[in-house]
Amino acid sequence: MTRPESGERILVTGAGGQLGKELVKLLNAKGIEVYGLTRNQLDITDCEEVHSLIDQISPTTVIHAAAYTQVDRAESEPEVAFRCNAIGTRNVAVAAARVGAKLVYLSTDYVFDGYGSSSYNEWSETSPINVYGQSKLAGEEFVQQHHNRFFIIRTSWVYGAHGNNFVKTMLKLGAEHGAVRVVEDQVGSPTYTYDLASTIIAMLKTEKYGLYHVSNTGHCSWFEFAQEIFKQAKMEVQVTPIPTSAMPRPAARPAYSVMEPFMLRLNDLPLLPSWQQALQHYLLNNHTD
Ligand SMILES: NC(=O)c1ccc[n+]([C@@H]2O[C@H](COP(=O)([O-])OP(=O)(O)OC[C@H]3O[C@@H](n4cnc5c(N)ncnc54)[C@H](OP(=O)(O)O)[C@@H]3O)[C@@H](O)[C@H]2O)c1
Question: Are 132 and 78 within 8 A, CB to CB?
């Protein structure tokens, strides 16, 4: 691959994922030169490959959306999770800094323990309660150590057109069984990849670097989210609230991981639409793959 001459060039890692696909689609639609690299094209844990490809493409921005996202499995293979989310992120951050590219790193509400009942802002203390959250926080630390023009974007409860997600699962289960049981004691903010990707692209045009909380506005429990999905989809489905303890899983989840978009407000950047509006947009466009 020969090094392109000039102009804006955006490299997206994890381009086969939920967010990565949405980013590549939106960037292409804007006519921006984009290099969306899937895991087969760029394995972020391979330090030499990361440096070689980022050197060749010489992007002006790297959006690092690749991650090990299997929250439960991470508990039994922490080394695999850390190799990707921490070391892989270090590799990307160092290579991006070397070519002078801005860096966007996606992080998560799971950096918080969720024990409280008030929202977290970007200065709230982190204290992850599962391996996935610990590994993503380690990634944040590597970004801060090795790069100085970065956006660290913590988001939550992601769904969208591409890949599997809670909305698709609910619609499928609701259609098949007419009834679902959903946890009511985990509260957070669902986030639609279209809104998240649009916000990232808008932020990139600025020099307003830093750590941001970026989710759709408002919050709900998974139970309330499921109720809203069926209401908007006009489906008669019985939704039964259950406690997390009724559905034990290997990884603990924060009970209340609502994130306040304090930095978006401080920097006069637009807040995302409400989670209900986002869901409506998603269901109306009803795009899947
Ligand atoms: N999903 C959520 O609810 C959520 C919530 C908060 C934050 N986030 C963060 O948001 C970002 C995007 O998440 P997402 O929902 O789009 O996740 P996703 O759909 O799981 O996509 C992640 C992508 O990264 C790829 N990947 C995994 N290991 C890799 C490696 N070693 N090298 C290169 N690529 C690798 C995956 O490929 P394979 O599929 O082949 O493994 C996948 O295509 C991630 O940083 C995630 O931690 C997500």
Answer: no
Q: Which of 28, 48, 175, 27 is nearest to 104 (CA)?
A: 27
Domain ranges, residue 47: 9-165+190-217+257-277
Q: Does 182 fall in a domain?
A: no
19 found inside a domain? yes
Q: Report the CATH number that the domain containing residue 263 is assigned in CATH.
A: 3.40.50.720
Place of tokens 């289960």: 173
Does residue 2 form part of some domain?
A: no
pLDDT(6) > 70: no
User: What residues are in contact with ligand 1 under a 6 Å CB criterion?
Assistant: 13-14, 16-20, 39, 42-45, 65-69, 84, 88, 106, 108, 136, 155-158, 163
For residue 130, what are the CA distances in angstroms to 11, 76, 84, 249?
30, 11, 16, 11
Q: Looking at 156-209, which runs of residues are DSSP E strands?
A: 158-159, 179-183, 187-188, 191-192
Number of domains present in the structure of the chain = 1
Tens of pLDDT, residue by residue over 145-202, are 999 999 999 999 999 999 999 999 999 999 999 999 999 999 999 999 999 999 999 9
pLDDT digits (tens, 9 = 90+) for 127-139: 999 999 999 999 9
